[in-house]
Write a structure and sequence with these properties.
Layout lengths: L4 E6 L1 H4 L8 H14 L4 E6 L2 H5 L10 H23 L5 E7 L2 H4 L1 H16 L2 E7 L13 H12 L3 E6 L14 E2 L4 H4 L14 H13 L3 E6 L5 H6 L5 E3 L8 H9 L2 E7 L3 H6 L4 E2 L3 E6 L6 E5 L5 E6 L16 E3 L4 E3 L1
Parallel strand pairs: 1-2, 1-5, 2-4, 3-4, 5-7, 6-8, 9-12
Antiparallel strand pairs: 7-8, 9-11, 10-14, 12-13, 13-15
Helix pairs in contact: 2-4, 7-9, 7-11
């Protein structure tokens, strides 16, 4: 691509009131900034707000899965119509992109998605992405749009991931906004709370979790207040919010795909001394596993937990989980070093 790719995620609380009504003044300002930056970048906007905007049309809304699907079906056309309306003065058209996990878990489908977006960009169109809430299976649904934005950023090799929120950024224990984070470790994650907005699914813990994945994949991430006038313009210049620095070194395309796109089917716990072997670039053998938490088939992606059951890696399996729980004393490779991604 001739222009760098930027993923902009907009949270529900950022563009709606507590009652779920769209805050048109904020959306007008977002459109103004996208209009200013449109010629410099290829944008994907991942926008929440459909469910929050549509729930007011349902009587006695309680927030069940079916009600959320119905609210999304109502709210998403309204949301898109507003984006189209506010971007129109800048001669920018939009396209709807409803995503499901299968669009990322199957390489052929992802390539089709990528080709479609490239065609849209070639014609100056901005894709507005969201989860396909109406038909998504609960087992396959994204945890929230922070995850969807991160999958798109990693899959498309974006230069930046902008996570727009309704707060200034990551706040330290003294109430000050951290301007920069070089490594999202347990200490940084502990700064986040699980408090959610009244309409959203995520929270700062979600943003930091997916910012950690994006930065490990070499994508600079900014968590910032999108309600602030000129916030997007400043975020692009890394002059606002919390800038999460990208790590040096790039993953091979297949590895990037593995860590970003595939649905994790299984889960294993490894022995205490095994983590260092993985960090040294070694493969995973059946003798390194102390417990199969969730089974998986050959070729499926599984999560690797350390002895304290913390997620440390994902990998694609060379064998079924059944084959390594038998009494077979032979040494079997569960995953090669090239198929293991440390998190």
């Amino acid at each position: 691509m001739s222009k760098p790719i930027v993923i902009l995620k907009i949270g529900t609380a950022s563009i709606t009131t507590d009652s779920g009504v769209l805050d048109e003044a904020v959306m007008v300002e977002i459109a103004r900034q996208l209009g200013t930056l449109h010629d410099q970048y290829n944008w994907i906007v991942v926008s929440s707000g459909a469910v929050g905007n549509g729930k007011s049309y349902l009587r006695n809304y309680q927030g069940s899965i079916i009600e959320r699907k119905a609210a999304a079906a109502i709210g998403n056309p309204i949301l898109l119509q507003k984006y189209a309306q506010f971007l129109s003065p800048y001669k920018i058209s939009i396209a709807q992109s409803l995503c499901e996990r299968t669009h990322f878990s199957k390489e052929e489908q992802f390539n089709q998605l990528k080709q479609t977006f490239m065609e849209l960009w070639k014609n100056g169109v901005i894709p507005i992405a969201n989860e396909n809430d109406v038909v998504s299976n609960l087992e396959l649904k994204f945890s929230d749009n922070d995850e969807l934005a991160t999958l798109l950023a990693v899959g498309f090799g974006a230069s930046m991931l902008l996570l727009g929120t309704s707060v200034a950024g990551v706040i330290d224990r003294d109430g000050k906004t951290l301007s920069q984070i070089s490594n999202i470790d347990e200490q940084i994650l502990s700064l986040a709370t699980n408090n959610l907005s009244s309409n959203g699914l995520g929270g700062m813990i979600s943003k930091l979790t997916f910012a950690r994945l994006a930065t490990k994949m070499g994508i600079q991430t900014v968590i910032f207040d999108i309600r602030k006038s000129g916030g997007i313009l400043e975020a692009i210049q890394k002059k606002t919010g919390t800038v999460c620095l990208a790590h040096q070194g790039s993953k091979k395309q297949r590895q990037r795909w593995l860590s970003s796109g595939n649905i994790v089917r299984g889960k294993v716990v490894i022995k205490k001394e095994t983590l260092q072997l993985l960090q040294d670039g070694k493969g995973l053998l059946n003798k390194h596993v102390s417990e199969i938490v969730e089974p998986f088939a050959k070729g499926e992606v599984f999560e690797i937990l350390d002895s304290q059951r913390r997620s440390v890696a994902v990998a694609r399996s060379l064998v079924t989980s059944n084959s390594i729980t038998s009494n077979d004393s032979s040494e079997k490779a569960l995953a090669t070093e090239s198929e293991i991604i440390l998190l």
